[in-house]
Write a structure and sequence with these properties.
Shape: globular
Number of strands: 23
Structural class: mainly beta
Largest sheet: 14 strands, parallel
Strand content: over 45%
Order of helices and strands: HHEEHEEEEEEEEEEEEEEEEEEEEEH
Length: 338
């Protein structure tokens, strides 16, 4: 599976033969040219959106540059499709700070979202700082299932053939990175950091996606380093350093109606240290539907000071009562209530 997937990525990210290269046009866009101040004080959201709009409308091979500097931005959606773009590279060298004003995030908003884009590359060594410490006291989700969900830092929705490498995520308000409905996603050299007591700061959450590879990444948070939600297939996690946190989890599964199976998961060549769990499968009791977690491989995993190295919990419940809430609850909170 790994060989075939990597080969497909090579095909996807290859520009092609010499004739193809000659026929392509190359475009560069810079957020500074669209009014970004990069002083960490002025809201640069509009400049980022203007630069993205221009890049997405271009033809050929496109690069969007975010130079070194500190940028304050609110909720920002980089949406496609970019119909005439062959590939779009976001070269992020800057330090992005999320606004701490929660009133700017309407219900369902996350901080930075990439959606409906093909052949996206996010790279450059930059940092997404969710500035979550200000918001964590308002997170009631660990004790209240009807809580108001805080924004995820970086979310990928329905992207295809995506490469994310050499980026950092710091102190998310909720999840650091989330993949929802993605196909062929490749992530490497990702660094994710949050304190061990920060609530619901999952490192990477994957849901309804296929063909996902995450490797050579360092993740330490207050929740799962990586969580595999429902309806995923062909997921490879390799070379993951996890800790602190709750470990690497499949689930939680079985909370909602019409959940799809989890199939073809491989976790290998990874280290967990100082986590509450190692590798975990967690499912809800009295599930409203039926789904499966099958064809999973755990190989060459080293655990140091891990409370529960291997745990299968089929009565998962983080609250005092966990009666099934059915479809209405699923619609209310979507993936974020994992």
């Amino acid at each position: 599976m790994k060989l075939l997937f990597l080969l497909s990525l090579v095909c996807c990210y290859s520009i092609g033969n010499a004739e193809t290269q000659k026929s392509l046009s190359y475009w560069n866009f810079n957020v500074l040219d669209y009014g970004a101040r990069a002083n960490g004080i002025t809201d640069d959201s509009k400049a980022f959106m203007a630069a993205w709009k221009a890049a997405c409308a271009a033809v050929g091979v496109v690069k969007l540059h975010i130079p070194a500097g500190t940028y304050l931005i609110g909720p920002t959606k980089f949406a496609g499709p970019c119909k005439n773009v062959h590939s779009l590279t976001v070269n992020m060298k800057g330090y992005l700070k999320a606004t701490t004003d929660l009133s700017q995030y309407v219900t369902g908003d996350d901080w930075v979202e990439f959606a409906w884009v093909d052949m996206l590359i996010l790279t450059g060594g930059g940092t997404f700082d969710g500035q979550g410490a200000v918001s964590w006291p308002y997170n009631k989700c660990p004790t209240n299932k009807h809580c108001k969900v805080l924004p995820t830092s970086v979310k990928f929705v329905a992207t295809s053939n995506t490469l994310v490498q050499n980026i950092k995520s710091l102190n998310s308000k909720f999840f650091h990175i989330a993949l929802v409905g993605c196909k062929n996603f490749w992530g490497k050299n990702i660094q994710i950091t949050a304190p061990s007591n920060s609530p619901n700061t999952d490192g990477i959450h994957i849901e309804r996606s296929t063909g996902v590879t995450i490797y050579n990444s360092v993740i330490g948070t207050g929740d799962d380093c990586i969580s595999i939600g429902h309806s995923n297939s062909e997921v490879l996690l390799s070379g993951i350093s996890c800790g602190p946190g709750h470990g690497i989890s499949i689930g939680s599964l079985g909370r909602y109606h019409n959940e799809g199976d989890v199939r073809g998961l491989v976790i290998k060549d990874s280290t967990l240290a100082g986590t509450s769990n190692g590798v975990r499968i967690k499912t809800w009791e009295n599930s409203p539907g039926t789904s499966k977690a099958v064809n999973m491989t755990f190989e060459n995993i080293v655990m140091n000071s891990v409370a529960n190295p291997i745990i299968i919990d089929q009565m998962y419940c983080p609250y005092s009562s966990c009666a099934s809430d059915g479809l209405e609850e699923m619609v209310r909170c979507g993936f974020s209530c994992e």
